[in-house]
Amino acid sequence: MTTTTTNNNNTTNTTTITLTPGATVPSLPIVLRKDDSLVLATFSENQRTLTEVESSRMTGDYRECEVCFNPVEQTAFAHATTTHVRYSQLVQPDKSDAWELKLMFEVEEKNVVALSFSTLGSVLVTYAMMDGKRPEGNMAMYDVSTGNLLRRCVQARWPGMVWCSQEQYCVRPVQGFLHVMEGDLRKGESTVLAKLDLQLPQDKEMELSMSPSNMPILAMFKPFHKQTQGTLFIYRLPNLLEGPMYQVSFGRAESATLLWSGSGNHIALLVKCESDKSGKSYYGTVKFFLVDVGGRNLKEIKFPSGESVHDCQWSPAADHVMVVHGTMPRNKTTLYDKTGVALMTFGEAPRNVILWAPNGRFCVLGGTGNLAGDFVFYDLNPSSSTGKSIRNNNINNNNGVSNQNNLNINNINNNNNRGANASSSAVALMTGEFNEKSSVQMWAPDSHVFLCATIFTRLRIDNKLVFYKNNGEHLLTQKYPILYGAHWVQTQETNLYPLRPASPRKETDKPAKPQPYRPPHASAAAAALLRRPDSSAPKPAKPAGPPGANIVVTKKKKR
């Protein structure tokens, strides 16, 4: 175990815990929303079991609303039935290793469809659909420490409240205006510090996102309306009326996705247009930009014509962003640094989702929805060269795409990459793969176990949980008649979980090669006739003879 602290130069150091070989892996708690109850369960990697804690079961109809965890007290979470909102916390009675669920408070709130917390976890916000029978308001705010109602109001847009990281200010869209208020709602009636006219109709959705840094900075995207271009605005709160500190227009863009980096200094911006002027895409276009908030500049990452962006995610460990882009079903995946310099590409494959492990060392690239459900694990900071090593070679071809069959990740050659992490740009390791069609995929808090869930709201049959290691090894499949959701519970800080490299897979655990389809009652010989020609199979050799011999090839005459 290596322990470091924060020094006078504001350098933040982390604690790394390494699990000794053969040691027992702690069980991981997980919350399940089933057909008529919510229950706490524990997953044991060593025993490959999922055990429900019957004493923690809470009855009710949990189909409508997702569980929402407190961002500060991460073992506490809010959950809603069709009649009540409950706030619960995981506890360990009598200093034992077992976990139990303790109800902190319960309030009557009907038909709640969304929950959220303020950034310091002091206020719980509940949101129900607007109803004429609820004149007092459909959005309520509760004091988490006491369970007391702070205020209730009518709210048309969701999210209804957005706080800055230290809760100095909160922002709320109200009837075509944007209100900036004091963030501590427990002091009583908050004063509106600034009000901005959005000049948008109710059917136009804007995007709001607050910086995770200590600076109270708000990013807002307003879509194209009438003759006003779609525009990104960046404000420093509470000074809305003084104008934005930075703004840039994007023509007829109808919507955008704002993704802040972990440092809060950069934004990954996905700008969406419903029409494609080139005519190559029926579904419109998605353009990718990187915004340097402090430097007040923007860089467009350009892709070949016809390519679109399918997913984009920041690394939790560094200001590196990974993007899946291309034309379905063969997409490329590229890792960029904060300035937009490409660090590596992961070849072509049918992918549309990126999932980073909480520790930022591992990531999963996969295909969901209409794609086949293939998932591949990568270690972007391998500690050793054991296993199936993936080296980065300079790209000299035209498209810069690596051969996926050779598992080769390419490092894009550039001389401007002086600030990039050398370990990230030098080598990566493919640690495993698996195939699983599922609705939801998520990492466990320990960054070692990966969960695939098929839930009732996506598929009404074959609801199940499937657990894998980050080497692709299958651990457990648990089936349910009805399953609405599964939610891991983080019981400690990410860096306090033992740091474990991916285990080598056994030969018997590797996925079998796909076999040719054989109809019922058909023989193997008939199935062989249906097999497609294998491009990797050796082809018949051309006629050959001793040096100097004349080769005669008889050709059939055309009739």
Order of strands across the widest beta sheet?
29-30-31-33-32
Provide a count of the helices.
2
Helix content: under 10%
Low-confidence parts, pLDDT < 50 over ≥5 residues?
Answer: 1-14, 384-426, 534-544
Region (Disordered): 498-559
Pfam families: eIF2A
GO molecular function, one term: translation initiation factor activity
Keywords: Initiation factor, Protein biosynthesis, Repeat, WD repeat
Your description of this structure?
The protein is mainly β. It has a domain at 309-435. It has two helices and 39 strands. The strands form ten sheets. Strands 29-30-31-33-32 form a five-stranded antiparallel beta sheet. The protein has a four-stranded antiparallel beta sheet with strand order 4-3-2-38, with no helix packed on it. The relative contact order is 0.09.
